[in-house]
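notes to self, project folder thing:

trying the whole complex as one job this time. last attempt i did each chain seperately and stitching them together was a nightmare. two parts in total, labels are on each line so i dont mix them up again. if this works i'll redo the older ones the same way
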Amino acid sequence: MTKRLLLKTLRLMGADPVDVLIEGGRITRIAGEIPAQDGDTVEQCAGAIALPGLVDAHAHLDKTLWGMPWHPHAQGKSLQQMIDTERSLRHELDMDAARQSARQVTLALSKGTTAIRSHVDIDTDHGLKMFEGVAETRARFADVMQIEIVAFPQSGMMIRPGTVELMDQALRDGADIVGGLDPCGIDRDPKGQLDAIFGLAEKHGKPVDIHLHEAGELGAFSLDMILDRTQALAMQGKVTVSHAFCLGMNDTARVNAQLDRIAALGVSLATTAPASRPVPSVAACRERGIAICAGNDGIRDTWTPYGNACMLERAMLVGLRNNFRADVEVAWALDTCTTDGARVMELDGYGLEVGCRADLVLVEVPALSEAVTQRPARRLVISGGQIVARDGETLGPWQSA
Amino acid sequence: MTKRLLLKTLRLMGADPVDVLIEGGRITRIAGEIPAQDGDTVEQCAGAIALPGLVDAHAHLDKTLWGMPWHPHAQGKSLQQMIDTERSLRHELDMDAARQSARQVTLALSKGTTAIRSHVDIDTDHGLKMFEGVAETRARFADVMQIEIVAFPQSGMMIRPGTVELMDQALRDGADIVGGLDPCGIDRDPKGQLDAIFGLAEKHGKPVDIHLHEAGELGAFSLDMILDRTQALAMQGKVTVSHAFCLGMNDTARVNAQLDRIAALGVSLATTAPASRPVPSVAACRERGIAICAGNDGIRDTWTPYGNACMLERAMLVGLRNNFRADVEVAWALDTCTTDGARVMELDGYGLEVGCRADLVLVEVPALSEAVTQRPARRLVISGGQIVARDGETLGPWQSA
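result (full assembly):
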């Protein structure tokens, strides 16, 4: 019989204080007062607000330079330049994917993240090296971080022959999801690329998550082709489109029609809510029941100097990008980093109810909105029933070199 | 003779380590090694990076609810709704401007801000009460926080008769700058309002700083009228336009022509770099030598639940909004919160050179960019030669109730 963990006086999502009992990695009781028994581990929570574990539904665990010397950013800004810069820097810098992904997982735990969907580069230069490194990290942290791996053809599929075969291999070896990006912009062959992606999905019975940076009508065209295939293969609920900047374009009638189709097909969206690009409207997605989750994308890598793995900061950025001010709206921003992420990742037993997996983040703020707007250090992070971080620091067993 | 303050081993803007001597509130010596003398206060800085004091060049010290109970945000989103909500809430909530502005100054010191330009509401409901409160705070913190007060007709000038007379009184009583907002959108009388504003400026010999939220062609029209008056009154270097969302519109030719005129007239811009609105491009301003400074705008007030008075966070938001990634670009974002703010506020002796006023912020990061991207707690904040905050906490004398 495992030891009981008793949390005293915490406010679930800002509600009135309760005690919460955790046994065998699950929440087994919630009540006004739960008496401690001999041998219980008891944590006094002093009225802190508890959120469910944060979900980073769009990450790149193999890319971060966290813990490595500062890398001066001076590459160009086109997508192709950033892709090429990274692929060559992987050789020059000592970018070990197992070590770096572990560092990011340690950091993410300290910030209260308990589930990550990570795209992982697969290309003909590096083969499956990054996939294998992140898979190693996934195994090491399996008890406390739920990691999904997307086999991601960052450098293109059709323009780099051999990539599809490597993705096929990764999916055999344990990648969870078929990735893709910009069928027009990068591969110059939308039919070829999307047929290959959905072909892999059908063959392996896996979901799809495609990066779509293409803007305006070009992106809308590619999106239509993605939706066509989702419909043809009856992949309702199994397709995510990441970024989908085209859904931020000004042609509201066109965007609304696509959103309606996305809702009907059960396609989900992932956003990072960048300030410098058009983005899908979180409110417009919610109105239609579309799951729109958020992710930190790359943090402190060769693409961007920003990022610290904090999903409460991402919730703030989602809120600012969507001009969310009212408390109910700030809660929507938080949803993109919690429940909507869990919905997209199909996490088992996610939430703050009896029977749920015990993934909780405690923050000392008077009101729920302030978890997002102020983002204080996490007082306590519990994942799978284990205390993994305290006062902003990940505990010993989950630290990384 | 005042006590000497000797800072050992700090990296000015990330350069090689030096020692810095501070006497009489000024930097008097910078050298590889400066030996301590008896009676010196010596601070070991352990290679921390020193920035000049941060400048919040667009704030609203009379509006914050910092330190007060959480206020649920549920008002509408139109400018007029937010203005009206606030004016009535000032009566309902206990919004004492002296107390609240002091709280924000205390908070801002802890984050390394040493100069603030604050717009302060003046309206016919509340008269000069907010101005008097913020003036009290300005006097109390005079040694450590350089505060400029803008007499700001938040509720309109022409639509609320009596406002111009109140602004006139505030300028007699020590307000530094003539404020304004949206001559079309709020006052519905651009000629009347701008003539009144520039009339007050001429009468009192004071600069002007006008909020311009008006978008697209409407804002461009109002902006042209502001530039016309700047030219007619030869107010080069004395006019700031805050927000200037119209300069973010898609008509590049129109925007560039206005930017050229802004540069020629020495008009400066203040931005908060909001993610949900069009904004002037920092790069386009820099190319033309236009001073573009940044501000946190209102923090945790009836308008917005966001904000924590941190100007390094604002620099990050400026960087994200402008898609700044290269180190040189991140430094531009930082400039908006440091040197450009000092230029707009015409701060005397600003900088990190011998002879400058000793306003320094120390952050423990390996590279300058990371001051912006990671925003760690400030190790030490020095203002006017005095240590005012340490490890993220403002010291006793400058704390507020």
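what i see at first glance: The radius of gyration of chain B is 21 Å.
need to look closer tmrw
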